[in-house]
């Protein structure tokens, strides 16, 4: 596998984003806990798709509407585009893994048996198991070295995915929230472990899927978090988690809440050109 390309991470504006009225707001909701709930499953099948899109997989792929996948950057080669389209519509019901645009109807917040409390109450579930969600997009904001919170913001590649992300975040808040006009990106974030806050930590779940060798989130395929840079095409894996509002909640009940995308892992699919800085115009002065 080719060595990772390390670049300086910094945010980049998104001059070519579709209408921002359909986007997730930039100010991602805060939550008080960084804990996530792990699930046990076989990641090999899903990540074989990450590595080699021409190989059949155990999941399913919805029919791609070419008109809905209309915002892939021009710098992405033609041979990579079908792979991105497949990732956008990938689902693997056996392991409760779905791309953002294929989350099944009937998904709802988890609950314990016979009304008893359960940690699943904070997670969006299907068939009583937490949903593991993928979204594919262009990195526009990345902060994976932090003493507080890791964050990645991507520009999604189709209106279908944008609408699905809005529906499953702001639309699941109580009271329901509306996207802000100036918002252009969809964010996933993860709080640094409480014991480590105050000192800079580095996100440890970044992987390379640029070549055809990544299999099942293999630890040997991990790359430094600094590898992920603006303009890259990535798959972001996350839980959809709710957190209680500051008012109206008592005990373990849920009255008001916000929703965020709880970052799990990132796979780099295509290395972009990075932030492009145009050279200054040549001078016409005679000196």
Describe this protein's structure.
With 287 residues, the protein is mostly beta strands. It has 3 helices and 14 strands. It is globular.
SSE arrangement:
Elements lengths: L43 H8 L8 E2 L19 H8 L1 E3 L4 E3 L8 E2 L14 E3 L2 E2 L1 E12 L1 E2 L2 E8 L2 H9 L18 E6 L9 E2 L3 E3 L24 E12 L12 E14 L17
Parallel strand pairs: 3-7, 12-14
Antiparallel strand pairs: 1-2, 2-3, 4-5, 5-6, 7-9, 7-13, 8-11, 9-10, 13-14
Question: What is the compact description of this entry?
Answer:
The chain has three helices and 14 strands. It is mainly beta.
- Strand fraction: 25-35%
The major beta sheet can be summarized as: 9 strands, mixed
Query: If you compute it from the alpha carbons, what radius of gyration comes out, rounded to the nearest whole angstrom?
Result: 19 Å
List segments where confidence is low: pLDDT < 50 over at least 5 consecutive residues. 1-45, 51-62
What is the β-strand count? 14
Assign a percent range to the helix content. Answer: under 10%
Summed over residues and divided by their number, the pLDDT gives a mean of 77
Oligomer: single chain
Keyphrases for this structure?
14 strands, 3-stranded antiparallel beta sheet, mainly beta, 3 helices, 9-stranded mixed beta sheet, about 290 residues
